[in-house]
């Protein structure tokens, strides 16, 4: 028996729970009121969720009449309805309200908590239920996706998103590896493992033959992952493969993906479809995994001293080969420069922060590198929305944040009591060590909103202080739960090691570098509070032990970030200053991030100045030369991409600031410009080691064929001399073919669509009007080339018989088939097919603006003019006898009227646009906001950014809905449907 925790600092600052041993936790309300259910405190709406592919208009998902609070965005509503509602669509059992899924999950957690002795009384259980419900309802935090998929359903109650497997040097173990990965991928999660136990290709088998080495077995696992990925799961297979730097096959491992990238380039140049998701990309190996090299301090010191380094046999541990350390390190960094793989993991640092060293080393990580612990283990995650704790006075409410962390962490531990797992070894390890991964999202938005530059001492100190408080509070609650329901089963064996790591965390809190003045005040206050909580945590841990071997990670927070309406994910900065926003009733627009005016207010700017600066950002996408904005404040608005992008080392320094307060690691990719050198990559990897990171990955722009950076090309039309056109006489009532003269104006445009290259030659009548086309695509004599010749002939004859070009454009634009994707045309950044591109290109070259406006086709110059207000976003058609013109003019009048009303309320912020009366009003409101997006021009924040920058961003298209994804940690996230390329 241990004594009850008194209501001292713990109750008044960082928590409201006491832990009478054996009697459960005593809880107090933070957000809720006794006798009032959280649902009764909000206004509910019925909405229709109809999700379409933004490029071709096809419906991906439809459910009408769903119920959500009025303050939830359309995007969050769409994501939760399509991803997390359970039951067959259209059936009576289908969930139809946010209440349904919150009740499904929270009820299960509450019942399990009561059954396992977590609560002192039924009143405490009710408080837990209401507080958790309130926080989920108000988007204060979210569990990871598997919880929403599975908890409270008839499915296995899998709650973990992250898994680490183990493989030994036997064929049975290797084949079991394939099987276990397959089961995890089938469930939509990801796994990582270390292959260093497998003998190298330089060692002998017991039969006398030579081993094939781990890289050979990676081929089979890669093929398996690719097959399961293509089977229709909601996310792609996510996996991490790690190899120790002293493995004799390390060079082969390092160069695998770089060699495959070269193969992709050769095949692409030969005419094969090597775009991401293309028909021929499946012939390339090793594309379904992230690769990382596990380096030791010994190796990094050898690199620094230009010494030699020994590669060790797997069976004996003896050195069987010696290499130049610098040369090997250069191979690692060169490969990363060429194709972004391998990443790097710092083995000694990882194991120095290991709470369970007596149970085995940490050998690997999950696919995104944030979860690192024992082999055959798992981790369930939850993330706090940091911006929810920022008060109107600009101060971070640390006390409330800590109390919220306690409730969330309690729920996460309860889930292990009823959770199911994909394999028995994973189940056993997870139940014995109870690894949890609490984290956060919206750090970048919080820093900007408080006037902190992401790459600044002030920004890093605030981030470190908040992270330290989160970690201290989580482990404090872990110690309190240990006093109630006991420490984790492996604690007794690892008590000394665990307490040593707790002391390291607490000591790191004292080392947070604070900045003087107003910007450092919040960090100092939060750091002081964290220090007090660390004192309580260490004292409680000394008495009770700890319930959990791990407490925290920083995950990508992809889909759940959308669920919480977060502007930024995980530890990331803002992607850009303009963002994509979906509207009530359909449609979308781009707006300036709402964090921007909040930041300007925090920096002391007046409302009139803020309005002018926001308008400038809407038009230009950056703050450089914004009216009235002081140059010393530019850095506050630096983003991951754009005019003022954060330097690579800025990302590394932020990771280093928060890493000492994370049990696991950080999912984040350091973006580097295309001009970065191999030496720059080497410096990043070396500094990551020196600054105490556990893992690091880089991505150099345009280093992968699958995510091409389009160069702006604009082939000007070349006109030739003209002659009169003569039509042949025909009988009355018969179609008239208007032939082209022998010498006519023409132009040739080279194009690339999804990696497929071709040429479009068009010939026109001397008195204007398109009369013929020739399309060169595919090798001469091939079936494709023949089909395109026949197609060109049929279109040309149709044009000459008087079929209007706009008719062809309306029929062929948005036609969807491969090849599709990025183009090299600055006016048409994305095409859903070659036909889609060709007819939109011809429309731009030969149709007047009024006809193109009806089709939603604009040039880059015209889109810029719309942004600047020079021309209307939807110009009325030219006057004619067509009755439809009256309707179009009336629609324009509605748009203008609505725009004038919105202009009067512009200072109130663009969030009010959600109530716009229909699509016309939405477009007008978007124009007033200073950044109207033409129909079909953008489907995500990444595409909005491309419109602003005038160039393509390195990100794949979503496999589910075709929308351009955006970075989310070391993964990618689709804002259109919520799919991710990772495991969070």
TrEMBL record:
Reactions the enzyme catalyzes: a 2'-deoxyribonucleoside 5'-diphosphate + [thioredoxin]-disulfide + H2O = a ribonucleoside 5'-diphosphate + [thioredoxin]-dithiol
Span of domain Ribonucleotide reductase class II vitamin B12-dependent N-terminal: 49-139
Cofactors that this protein relies on: adenosylcob(III)alamin
Residues covered by the Ribonucleotide reductase large subunit C-terminal domain: 160-699
Chain ranges passing through the membrane: none
Cytoplasm in keyword set: no
Stretches for region Disordered: 898-917
Domain TSCPD: 741-845
Annotated GO MF terms: cobalamin binding; cobalt ion binding; nucleotide binding; ribonucleoside-diphosphate reductase activity, thioredoxin disulfide as acceptor
Top-level division of the source organism's lineage: Bacteria
Classification via NCBIfam families: NrdJ_Z (TIGR02504), PRK06556.1 (NF005122)
Function: Catalyzes the reduction of ribonucleotides to deoxyribonucleotides. May function to provide a pool of deoxyribonucleotide precursors for DNA repair during oxygen limitation and/or for immediate growth after restoration of oxygen.
Family: Belongs to the ribonucleoside diphosphate reductase class-2 family.
Protein name per Swiss-Prot or TrEMBL: Vitamin B12-dependent ribonucleotide reductase
Organism annotation: Nakamurella aerolata
């Amino acid at each position: 028996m241990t004594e009850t925790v008194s209501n001292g600092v713990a109750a008044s600052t960082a928590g409201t729970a006491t832990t009478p041993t054996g009697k459960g936790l005593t809880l107090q309300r933070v957000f809720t009121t006794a006798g009032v259910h959280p649902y009764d405190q909000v206004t509910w709406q019925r909405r229709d969720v109809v999700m379409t592919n933004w490029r071709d208009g096809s419906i991906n998902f439809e459910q009408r009449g769903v119920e959500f609070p009025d303050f939830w965005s359309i995007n969050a509503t769409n994501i939760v309805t399509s991803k997390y509602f359970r039951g067959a669509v259209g059936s009576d059992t289908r969930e139809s309200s946010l209440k349904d899924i919150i009740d499904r999950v929270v009820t299960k957690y509450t019942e399990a908590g009561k059954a396992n002795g977590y609560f002192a009384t039924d009143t405490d259980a009710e408080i837990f239920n209401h507080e958790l419900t309130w926080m989920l309802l108000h988007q204060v935090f979210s569990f990871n996706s598997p919880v929403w998929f599975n908890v409270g359903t008839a499915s296995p109650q899998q709650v973990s998103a992250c898994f680490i497997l183990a493989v030994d040097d036997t064929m049975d173990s290797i084949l079991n590896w394939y099987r276990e990965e397959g089961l995890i991928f089938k469930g939509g999660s990801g796994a990582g493992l270390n292959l260093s136990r497998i003998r190298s290709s330089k060692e002998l088998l017991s039969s006398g033959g030579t081993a094939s080495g781990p890289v050979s077995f990676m081929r089979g696992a890669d093929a398996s992952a690719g097959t399961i990925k293509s089977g229709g799961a909601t996310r792609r297979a996510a996996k991490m493969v790690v190899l120790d730097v002293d493995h004799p096959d390390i060079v082969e491992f390092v160069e695998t993906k770089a060699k495959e990238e070269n193969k992709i380039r050769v095949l692409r140049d030969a005419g094969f479809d090597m775009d991401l998701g293309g028909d021929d990309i499946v012939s390339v190996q090793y594309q379904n995994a992230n690769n990382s090299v596990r380096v030791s301090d010994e190796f990094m010191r050898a690199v620094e001293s230009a010494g030699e380094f020994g590669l060790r046999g797997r069976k004996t541990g003896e050195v069987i080969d010696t290499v130049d350390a610098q040369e090997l390190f250069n191979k690692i960094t060169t490969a990363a420069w060429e194709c972004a793989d391998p990443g790097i993991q710092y083995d000694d640092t990882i194991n120095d922060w290991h709470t369970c060293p007596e149970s085995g080393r940490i050998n690997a990580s999950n696919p995104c590198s944030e979860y690192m612990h024992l082999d055959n283990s798992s981790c369930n995650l939850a993330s706090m929305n940091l911006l929810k704790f920022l008060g109107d006075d600009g101060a971070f409410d640390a006390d409330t944040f800590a109390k919220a962390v306690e409730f969330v962490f309690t729920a996460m531990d309860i889930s292990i009591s009823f959770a199911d797992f994909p394999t028995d070894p994973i189940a056993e390890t997870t139940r014995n060590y109870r690894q949890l991964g609490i984290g956060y999202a919206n750090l970048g938005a919080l820093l900007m909103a408080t006037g902190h530059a992401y790459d600044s001492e002030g920004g890093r100190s605030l981030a470190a202080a908040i992270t330290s408080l989160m970690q201290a509070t989580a482990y404090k609650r872990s110690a309190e739960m240990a006093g109630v329901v006991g420490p984790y089963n492996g604690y007794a064996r690892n008590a000394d090691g665990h307490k040593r790591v707790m002391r390291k965390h607490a000591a790191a809190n004292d080392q947070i570098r604070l900045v003087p003045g107003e910007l450092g005040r919040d960090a100092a206050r939060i750091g002081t509070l964290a220090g007090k909580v660390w004192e309580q945590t260490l004292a409680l841990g000394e008495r009770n032990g700890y319930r959990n071997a791990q407490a925290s990670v920083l995950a990508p927070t992809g889909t759940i970030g959308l669920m919480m309406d977060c502007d930024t994910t995980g530890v990331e900065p803002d992607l850009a200053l303009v963002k994509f926003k979906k509207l009530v009733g359909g449609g979308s627009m781009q707006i300036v991030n709402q964090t921007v005016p909040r930041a300007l207010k925090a920096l002391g700017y007046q409302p009139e100045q803020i309005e002018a600066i926001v308008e400038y950002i809407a038009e230009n996408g950056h703050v450089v030369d914004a009216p009235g904005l002081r140059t010393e404040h530019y850095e506050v608005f630096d983003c991951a991409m754009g005019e003022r992008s954060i330097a690579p080392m800025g990302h590394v320094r932020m990771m280093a600031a928060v890493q000492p307060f994370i049990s696991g690691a950080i999912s984040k990719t350091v973006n580097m410009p295309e001009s970065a050198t191999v030496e720059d990559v080497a410096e990043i990897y070396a500094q990551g080691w020196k600054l105490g990171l556990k893992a690091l990955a880089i991505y150099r722009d345009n280093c992968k064929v699958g995510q091409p950076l389009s160069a702006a090309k604009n082939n000007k039309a070349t006109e030739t001399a003209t002659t009169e056109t003569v039509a042949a006489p025909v009988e009355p009532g018969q179609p008239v073919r208007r032939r082209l003269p022998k010498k006519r104006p023409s132009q040739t445009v080279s194009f690339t669509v999804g990696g497929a290259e071709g040429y479009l030659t068009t010939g026109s009548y001397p008195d204007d009007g398109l009369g013929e086309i020739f399309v060169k695509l595919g090798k001469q004599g091939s079936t494709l080339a023949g089909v395109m010749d026949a197609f060109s002939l049929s279109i040309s004859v149709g044009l000459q018989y008087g079929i209007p070009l706009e008719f062809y454009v309306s029929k062929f634009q948005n036609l969807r088939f491969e090849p599709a994707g990025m183009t090299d045309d600055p006016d048409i950044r994305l095409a859903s097919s070659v036909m889609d591109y060709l007819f939109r290109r011809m429309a731009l070259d030969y149709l007047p603006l009024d006809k193109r406006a009806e089709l939603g086709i604009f040039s880059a110059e015209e889109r810029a003019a719309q942004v600047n207000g020079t021309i209307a976003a939807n110009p009325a058609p030219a006057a004619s006898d067509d009755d439809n013109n009256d309707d179009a003019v009336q629609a324009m009048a509605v748009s203008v009227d609505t725009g004038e009303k919105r202009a009067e309320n512009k200072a109130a912020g663009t969030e009010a646009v959600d109530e716009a009366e229909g699509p016309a009003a939405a477009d007008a409101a978007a124009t007033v906001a200073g950044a109207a997006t033409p129909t079909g021009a953008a489907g995500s924040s990444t595409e909005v950014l491309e419109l602003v920058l005038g160039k393509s961003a390195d990100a794949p298209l979503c496999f589910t809905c075709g929308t351009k994804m955006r970075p989310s940690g070391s993964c990618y996230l689709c804002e259109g449907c919520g799919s991710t390329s990772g495991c969070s």
